[in-house]
Amino acid sequence: MKIDYYQYRLTIKELIRFWSEGLGICIVVNFLCYRLLWVFVITVPFTIFYLKLKKQTLIQKRRERLRGQFKDAIHALRISISAGYSMENAIGACLKDLRSIYDQQEPIIQEFLYIQKQMSFSVSIEALFMDLGNRSQLEDIQNFAEIYAMASKSGGNLNAILGKTTKMIEEKIETGKEITASIAAKRVEQTIMSIVPCGIILYVQLTSPGFMDVLYGNMVGIVVMTGCLILYLLAFWLGKTMIEIEV
Predict the structure, then answer these.
(1) CATH assignment of 63-181?
(2) Residue ranges covered by each domain of the chain
(3) What DSSP line would sit under 141-204, residue for residue?
């Protein structure tokens, strides 16, 4: 099956889950900032934006999974070619190895099944890897496709080329893992700091009933709370941006 890595169809389970999460956020925001039914009704369409946001997150996670799985794929290809297989036969051997590691629905399994099927229609392997690189827009796969295409045309040592490419991708992925581990504490801090303002408002409301009533049910309170909410969302976005490092 040919996968478009910039499209994702949410399952019914995912739709219900993410819509419920979005609706829950609307309820919490309305309770903390407004306590007005009409404001809640206005914020409900936010759930559509939230669904799109979660869809983009799932798209990115799928691309990252493919990136990590591709490293294992070219490693298996290298072993098969070292054993004397042609690239065509190495694809089949690689698929068997990948099936022992990954579930049938994983992107790399679907891609190698697609490659194997297209090879039976006499589609060149170079074109198939190029197509995968274009659909995924992953630099590692694009580089591999270009290197393999040049090696096929020039008759270069495919085993050596695969070895160097595998090492390069492995080093890049390991660097990414080290960076992720080094900023893991910062991610936790950012999450905690995002919760703190909501916790403070809730704490004041519970420990001092009526203290914040002046901010609810009037236009001045709506304006003040909306301004605070905008600042909070801006700070949240900046925090997320600062800890997102792409390798």
Answers:
(1) 1.20.81
(2) 63-181, 184-247
(3) HHHHHHHHHHHHHHT--HHHHHHHHHHHHHHHHHHHHHHHHHTHHHHHHHHHHHHHHHHHHHHH
